[in-house]
Amino acid sequence: MDRCECPLPQKKLMNAESKIHVAGHRGMVGAAVVRLLKQQGYANLLLRTRSELDLTNQAQVNQFYAEESPEVVVFAAARVGGIHANDSYPAEFIYENLVMASNAVQAAFEHGVRRFLFLGSTCIYPRMAPQPIREESLLTSELEPTNEAYAIAKIAGLKLCQFYRRQYGVTFHSAMPTNLYGPGDNYHSENSHVLPAFIRRFHEASEANDESVTIWGTGSPLREFLHVDDLAAAILHLLKLDHPPDLVNVGSGEEVSIHALAKAVADTVGFRGRIETDPTKPDGTPRKLCDISRIRSTGWSPQIGLHEGLKSTYAAFRAELENDSLRAV
Questions:
Q1: N- to C-terminal Cα separation, the chain
Q2: Whether CATH 3.20.20.80 fits 20-186+225-253+288-304
Q3: Is 150 a catalytic residue?
Q4: Binding site for NADP(+): residue ranges?
């Protein structure tokens, strides 16, 4: 494989003048990263909307990297969704995420990007991986069928980074966050993840004085949740490491059942009706708690508890409703 005549990147820390491209800056994760970077004095940010830069278009991606020469890339762009969306549109989920990752990693390599941080998800791990899930569990057994397409695309992206780093010495690495929530989340009635779906559903039920809300599945699966601002802090922390891990989990280290989560959301929004379950709907992976000892060993730890995070997220949800900026796509 040929590459431009750029020298191999030196392993040095970012500075305030570094040209940083945040791919997917309008999504929940990208927006949180941008907020934190600006707060920390990083002003030289390269931000492009989907209409300005189609990451599935190889020619556009190559042109962007050639003309703008980013030094650091945070790749938070993805086609994402909950169980319903993943199960309904697997072709789009695998194709779009594969193509975006391939285009970006190759262009970054060809044009001398110094640091490339690829964002995936802990859904890359096997359905029945030993708990809590260590990074070494990757590719040891079968994936969860309801999000297999997305998981395979994300595994390919992190492996691209790993193999380019191994073969060419570039500092391309990956972080796998657990289930995320926070301001700017997607509140689509069918395609959103479980926590934003709960916030919207219980809010609307509370407003309508409904007697009950029905949640998918049995309510027994255990899930881990991380506030997106904690993830943004982890991303900046990893970018400042001279020798970051190839792959690292980012999570809260705590888990809650789906039924308990529903109760916590109901309490937060003020819903006082019944919470019912629908066992005819899929539960997904029975348990998914990630081991975060690797990133803890580098000096990062989560700071925002679930109760505090739910309260601030619901406040952001209401503000987004009021100013007509709520995402529901």
A1: 39
A2: no
A3: yes
A4: 24-30, 119-122, 154, 177-180, 193
